[in-house]
Predict the structure.
Amino acid sequence: MHKNPTTILALDPGLRDLGFAVLAGKKLVASGVRPLRLLPRERRLPEARRLVRGWIRAYQPRAIVLEATYRHPVDSLEALHRLAGTVHRLGDRRRVLVATYAPQTVRKSLTGDGWASKRELAQAIAVRFPALRVYLTQDRKWKEHYFLNLFDAVALALHHQAAAA
């Protein structure tokens, strides 16, 4: 019996740059980074929520995966935790599984080393998805850092897929 591939929406949450990836079976359907840093601080969280709602409507995932966040006394980091809470509530309303994973757990499953660098993780993912190799070599350090958010989101999706198998 042929099973429909499970669509996974993965988010590397950030209120400066929001990485996302959509994985359907073994196919990377969409991925990217949405820059939120260009918006005033008070508009970043509402814009991130709007983007997530749009991705859920567009891709209708069976699972939403995001990097674990924690409560924090610094307001900007607490806003990140509030974004994660929003994602959990959206998932609950739509009856979509929401899973969170620590970065070290994801890195360990994909590289064999929980303390691998973001760059090492990105290289491992580029082997699996050669079209992403273009994002590994950038002419500016900020661009490299920017695109690592995309690789983190793809890594979350791949880890969840392997953990759910």
Remarks:
- The radius of gyration is 15 Å.
